[in-house]
Amino acid sequence: MSNEAAFVRQELVPERAAPIKTTGFVGFLRTRLFNSPTNTVLTVLSALLIWFTVVPTVRFLLIDAVWHGADRNTCLAKNAGHPVGACWPYVSAKFTQFIYGFYPGAERWRVNLTFLLAALLLLPLLIPRLPAKGLNACLFFIAFPVVAFFLLHGGGMIALAVSGAIVSILLFLLGGGTRTGWLALGASLAWFVGIGIVIGSMGDAGRLPIVDTRLWGGLLVTLVVSVTGIVASMPIGIALALGRRSTIPLIRIFSIAFIEFWRGVPLITVLFFATYMLPLFVPANFTIDGLMRALIGIAVFAGAYNAEVIRGGMLAIPRGQSEAASALGLSWWKTTGLIMMPQALRHVIPGLVNSFISLFKDTSLVSIVALFDLLGTVRASFADPAWATPTMLFTGFAFAGIIYFSFCFGMSRYSLFVERRLNAHRRS
Amino acid sequence: MSTDTRPPPPQFAAKLRRALGGQAGWRGFALQVLFAAALAWIGYEIVANARANLQSQRIASGFGFLSNTAGFDVSQTLISYSGSDTYTRVFLVGLLNTLLVSLIGIFLATVIGFIVALGRLSPNWLLSRISGAYVELIRNLPVLFQILFWYLAVLSALPNPRQSISLFNGFFLNSRGLFVPKPIASSGLDAFALAVLAAIVSALLLRRYARWRLFNSGKAITIWPYIIGLLVGLPLLTGLVFGKPFTLEFPQLKGFNFAGGASVIPEFVALTVALSLYTAAFIAEIVRAGIQSVHKGQMEAGASLGLSRGSTLRLIVVPQALRVILPPLTSQYLNLTKNSSLAVAIGYPDLVSVFAGTTLSQTGQAVEIIAITMGVYLLLSLVTSAIMNFYGWRISRRMGT
Fold it and tell me: Is the pLDDT of residue B63 over 80?
């Protein structure tokens, strides 16, 4: 045996080329944008699309925009000296109209106060970490609408005191009566006394002057309609959802027919129904305010949609829960109120937020039945010759679009956040 | 010794109780009686009030107005209509316009929605981001806002008829709408129609034959060149033999507007564009969720069989995703149909606009007109969901579940 047969490498192996980088910016470009001929074509087309949409939009909104000026002349290309984009002075001139409509200038603090109160009540409700959700929700859904009505519409102290007492007793009973209801009673009374003091000090002779709803407009109407819609549609939705699951035939059939009817017709016909038909159905000496009619229509419409969302949540609760409640000897009302509803409502928060988003978008329809919401006032302002420029329409739509988008986008992100929180145990 | 099973006791009282009051028994029965009484009382009040109010306002009631002369014109009619026709005719015109805009909108929304969904799922980073931005932007703006935007801002920014944007000197786009050449039938039309029909039938037969062959012998035939040849060649050949099937009447600029040709009114364009873009964003999300609900292994199995990404999607993933996609897709179609009623905001003559709008303000018969309008939409909803339920049932049967 000789050693010659054995193979011994005499020289170094030549270096292989480094593998293609798949990390870092270049790697990202290579794997996600230019990894095949088709993808390269798609990337180039997408880049062109961005170039032809995003760049003109940014130019219009920021670079070519006119920011200061007193009238339409500053927004004309021949005076500005460059192609003119958005005419922001038009928005700032019309700003109060877009927000308050024709609400009298001296009374606008009431609107601002209402917005502030809503934000103060809503924010703690939305942040999951903060305590006292039940009390907070009761105040927002029951006490706040009453207070908001007095602030926005106006009225005397006596009416406020009476409704305050009724609401406080209701909250006391909801909070658990003599056992645990004292906190709710105290909070509600403090809340109404506080508002009473504000009205007493700011109004003349202890009452706020009445502001007719025909003067309301802009974002105020949009928010009033959507918040009233969601607040009023919740009890309707819960009642219909329970009715649809009821074992009593007539109630079940009525609930199904009611839900399917309102879900099957477009909102605009519902608004037409509320505007033209509803006044015929009530006694002649009893007139319903124009805004009120739209609110009734929207509440019933949204209630039918909410009913399906809530029913979905109730279906998701295992049978064992209600069986356990029966085994403990709880009545139907107690089973529903203490066992089913708290779990079901917690399950459907994302769904309810989504239905609130579509309700918020749908409030723009009230402009068709002669109410001036945000979109309606923006559209009405297009008729003003003092600001008529070629870019006025686009500026108005950009302003309204930004407001609608920020509200809806914020809410949809919130709903995603809650959904992820609720499903935290399911994530791997 | 054998024992006969005893027949169960008749339990007449229990059965009666259950039939009358459900699980809640006699209490449920009492509740039902109360409920029925309350409903009857409310119904009576409504009817009595409505009758009194209508009488005091001197508004006629009943459906007699449907045979009265309408006396107004409608800007787009699919059936012949003039101002001297009746309100029934107005109703039909409006209904057809609603159906037209809904059908075209549903078609466009489905196509755009599928494209955007596939773009969102694409491995291309830029494309998926653009599709995502489109969905977020469109979904978070009210549909009325979008309709008004297209109608007031975009379409009115188009040039006037004299400076129309023209394509091939036959298509003109301007602020008055879209003007296209109108085909006018001439001698060779019958033969041409027959040829088109024959081409379609033979293309379908060819596809069947190719399938049959694939399943029996395992050999695939590429059939698309033949199909294109049939669909284009056969009609062309008949055209050469029998003469032109139709001549085109081109729109001509006369005075301030175009005359001749066919025109699409700007309201229709704005409504269709806005509705299909809006619904497409929702459809894209539904399709994406459906495709993602199919197990990843299916896609990988398709790839390992050597199918391209397109073929895997078309043959393996989408058929399975359809089961998840269909129910929400149906409700989007219904939403589009219902949203088409927003035409009233821009004056497109749909059902709500001409019937619940103009006719209502002319006759004042709110009860009858709004009831008819709501009934029509309700019927459309029920029919659409019935059709889609049937289709879903067929798909689930074919998938063997």
Answer: no
